[in-house]
Write a structure and sequence with these properties.
mainly alpha; 446 residues; 5 strands; Serine Threonine Protein Phosphatase 5, Tetratricopeptide repeat
């Protein structure tokens, strides 16, 4: 069950499921930090600060945001690209926080359980009625009579979800006012979505929608939002720039080169446009030109950790790991939460094939794993570093961890079994290997 921002059926959004049953995610230190900064005041005001709610980015260009448990807000990359201001995305996060704070997920599960019971009873009564009428020769009751009660139950559930969406909208207004932020971005965004879906929804029955029809929803929301004392408050230029850089980065990594050229033409001298063009240049393997463009970005903002990260990434992927180390080290020093960058720096250290860098790589990865304890890439890199040191027991255990968090339990069991044979019995590492051997299912992400 997913409570989503965009209208549609009561399910996870199309495209959210990958072929292996997982969700295709985007991990990026810069974007995640920006979303964390957007969400933190809202979550604190909503009473959710202790739940450690994380904003997770889905690699999907459709517009959607939703919650499926009490610890994650999922948002599509397409929503981040489409939102023109920070305030629009903050409004989306506020709406989804409204679902979490309102306990909508648990109540919906209870409602579904009751509906399932009702549905079974209704189906049995319908079958009984059909049998009775067939015996009496009355052909007026049949499949329609069986399905009618279930259709009524379905409409009741949809009405309940529409009520929850309305509640989440008003909760979002409350959170925005409490944090001194404007609800205008949320209204503007809903208007834009309403315009886009107007033609598709013009003949839709309001009783068969999981969300209030867009025009009704926007009209109701706008009246309440305009009463906010912060209605006209704009985002700061600094935050708007970070938002523009985020949109440029997502577009540059997910769109084709010709699309980037149209969206960010050479005539656009903004920092965001230059960022997008630098990423697009390195992605088409023109490393010398890309480095020139990235160095210009660093000159414009020397303390921006993510420009240094981009330079290191371009050098690493361009086959120059030794040269990537310095900019990645600088990025780690500057970034507020550098775990993902530390993993990349360790990868560059490992790629130099120098035994002298193994200890540094292991230290970086151990630190990164305190923030990213379920990152398969970190375990792959630490396995390589231990292997280069000749510590085969720890290399096997790290490889088992990598397989475990990828969901490959068969490989994880084999590697952990081998690690157990090399580790002191009863040691913490041996116990962890034994846990992996005993695991029956992929761990739940917290």
């Amino acid at each position: 069950m997913a409570l989503a921002l965009a209208g549609g059926s009561i399910s996870a959004p199309a495209g959210a499921q990958s072929s292996d049953g997982g969700i295709p995610l985007i991990r990026d230190a810069e974007i995640e930090q920006l979303l964390r900064d957007y969400a933190t005041p809202i979550l604190r005001t909503a009473g959710l600060a202790k739940q450690n709610v994380k904003v997770v980015i889905i690699n999907d260009l459709g517009f959607n945001a939703f919650v499926m448990d009490g610890q994650h807000i999922f948002i599509n990359a397409g929503a981040l690209m489409d939102a023109k201001t920070p305030n629009e995305i903050i409004g989306v996060l506020s709406h989804e926080s409204g679902h979490l704070a309102g306990g909508h997920l648990s109540r919906m599960r209870e409602r579904l359980a009751a509906a399932q019971t009702q549905s079974i009873v209704a189906l049995l009564l319908g079958i009984g009625a059909a049998v009775a009428t067939s015996r009496s020769g009355d052909a007026g009751t049949g499949i329609g009579g069986i399905m009618a009660p279930q259709e009524a139950i379905r409409r009741s559930l949809l009405a309940y979800v529409r009520t929850q969406e309305d509640q989440a909208d008003h909760a979002a207004l409350k959170f925005l006012n409490a944090t001194g932020q404007s609800p205008k971005g949320m209204v503007d965004l809903f208007k834009r979505l309403s315009d886009e879906s107007l033609f598709a929804a013009r003949d839709a029955s309001p009783y068969l929608q999981t969300h209030p029809l867009p025009a009704d929803r926007v009209a109701t929301l706008e009246v309440a939002a305009k009463a906010s004392p912060y209605w006209s408050k704009a985002d700061s230029p600094e935050l708007q720039l970070r938002h523009d850089l985020m949109r440029a980065k997502i577009a540059a990594f997910l769109d084709r080169g010709d699309t980037i050229a149209r969206r960010y033409p050479l005539s656009d001298a903004s920092l965001a446009a230059r960022y997008a063009r630098a990423i697009a240049t390195y992605r088409r393997s023109d490393l010398p030109k890309a480095l020139t463009q990235i160095d210009a970005l660093i000159q414009a903002q020397p303390a921006n950790p993510y420009f240094h990260e981009l330079k290191g990434q371009a050098l690493l992927e361009g086959g120059h790991p030794a040269e990537a180390i310095a900019p990645l080290r600088r990025a780690v020093q500057l970034a507020p939460r550098p775990a993902l960058i530390q993993i990349m720096l360790a990868q560059a250290l490992n790629a130099t094939n120098s035994g002298k860098t193994s200890e540094e790589a292991i230290g970086l990865l151990r630190t990164a794993l305190t923030q990213e304890p379920e990152a398969p890439d970190a375990y792959v890199q630490i396995a390589m570093a231990y292997g280069r040191k000749g510590d085969l027991a720890q290399a096997d255990l790290a490889s088992a961890e990598a397989a475990f968090y990828r969901g490959d339990l068969k490989a994880a069991e084999l590697l952990a079994t081998r690690a157990k044979g090399r580790l002191p019995i009863g040691s913490p590492s041996w116990i962890r290997a034994d846990d992996i051997v005993s695991a029956k299912q992929k761990p739940k992400t917290n």
